[in-house]
Structure formats: structure tokens, C-alpha cells
Amino acid sequence: MSTESPLKELALHDITVRFGGLTALDNVSLRVAPGRIVGVIGPNGAGKTTLFNIICGFVQPTSGSLTLDGQPWRPRPHHLNRLGIARTLQGVGQFAGMTVLENVMVGARRRRAEAEAMAALERCGVARYAAAHPGALPYAIRKRIELARALVAKPQILMLDEPAGGLDADEIGWLGTLIKETGTTVLLVEHHMDLVMSVCDEILVLDFGKPIALGSPAEISENPKVTEAYLGTAA
Ligand SMILES: Nc1ncnc2c1ncn2[C@@H]1O[C@H](COP(=O)(O)OP(=O)(O)OP(=O)(O)O)[C@@H](O)[C@H]1O
């Protein structure tokens, strides 16, 4: 499977997740159309990571369902790569005992995918660190390596979990350009509002697990419910 294959439509239907007495997601529906960049935002604890964990099969919904290209779909973490779904993690979770190149090859679909891994590192501007060990590198470089690891398999759906965390303005500018140029479907969980507003076609806003708004960046930035959710957190 490659980026030339038709992109997949991912949809969540009335997903609810309860952890004991806590409702982390409350009846959330979302259709991620092929090729769109969809942001998921909300105050801390709103359920953003839980939503990603549902799509990756790390967490099972209490109720609700998912579909992939309209077919019922039960995600399993070890099938994601084969299905063309790649995810970056918050922070940088690279293997310390491997070189940068070896870390990126872990994300590839084929064995011995050295050329693809080098191409992904080049795309992310960090090919010169291929032989280094990630532990010794600055945080911003490691974030780029994490992106290369997700991009190496040429995913059809790229899930980015707080990719801008810990980056400066220049790095975030670079990241925004990369996201817009991937040509793939992107799901973006991010607190950095300028990045979200500049790259997303559509944004879902969660608050205490509830979907409170879904729309274009302009619609979201003018929605009083969204302002209230954020100001309520800050107060
Ligand atoms: N495995 C779990 N067991 C119990 N509660 C959990 C679990 N995972 C998440 N939660 C709770 O579910 C709620 C939503 O958490 P989640 O991490 O999805 O929020 P978030 O929007 O990603 O937050 P942040 O912006 O801080 O990363 C929180 O109250 C959290 O404490």
C-alpha cells in the first residue's frame, strides 16, 4: 500500500468511553474525509488522547463504533501500519540503543527499508543525524525524527499527538508547512492554537469529553462555547 492508493475515510460514530465513573468521551462522532487535515482541540483532560487511543485500538469504546471506508472496523494496534495509519506520540519515544536511522526503519512496512528511512529523514531535514544516537540530540531534532518515523511508511492517515510541544516558533512554522504538504489525511491533537488554525480544514472541540463544536477554523474561533470552555479552564 502506498500514498498512491485511495485514501481511507475514517469515522467515529457516537463513541462513549468511561473509565469507572469518569466519562472521558461522551457520544463523540467525527468523520475524517480523505485528504483532510482535522484538528482535535480542548482543554486539558478533554479527551483528545483518549480519542486517539480509540482509533489506535489502545482503548475500547464503552459504546459506539468506528468505520473505515464505510465498513465496520475494530482497530488493533498491530494492524495500524498495514492499514496505512501512523501515529506520533507526545514527547519523543525513541529507542536509545539504536541509531536515528534504525529508529526510523522501525516505522517502515518493509524490512531493510533503509532508503525509505533516509528519504523520510531528509524530508524532515535531519538526514545528517542518521548515524547518531537519539538520546544525545536536542529535543527539536528528536521531534523531527519522530515525524520521520511516522512518515516512513507513507501513511494514508497520519495522527499527530501534540507535535508542536516544546518547539520554538521557527520549528512550529516548519512543522505547519510539513503538515500541509504531506498530501495525506491528518488528525492533529495540539494545544498550539496558531498551528491548529493555520493548517486545519476542520476542527473538533472537546470539553470534558463532550463535542462542543465542529467546523472550520473561522467558525471555531468565533464560537462562544469554545471561548467559554477555554476561559472556564483558565479561571
Ligand atoms: N486509562 C485511564 N484510566 C482512567 N482515566 C483515564 C485514563 N485515560 C484517561 N483518563 C482520564 O480521561 C480524561 C481524558 O483524558 P485525556 O488524556 O484523553 O485528555 P486530553 O484531552 O488528551 O488531555 P491533555 O490535553 O492534558 O493531554 C482525563 O480526566 C483523564 O484523567
From TrEMBL:
Record's keyword annotation contains Iron: no
CDD domains from the UniProt entry: ABC_Mj1267_LivG_branched
Annotated SMART domains: AAA
UniProt entry keywords in alphabetical sequence: ATP-binding, Nucleotide-binding, Transport
Keyword Transport part of the UniProt annotation: yes
Domain ABC transporter: 10-233
Name this polypeptide is given: ABC transporter ATP-binding protein
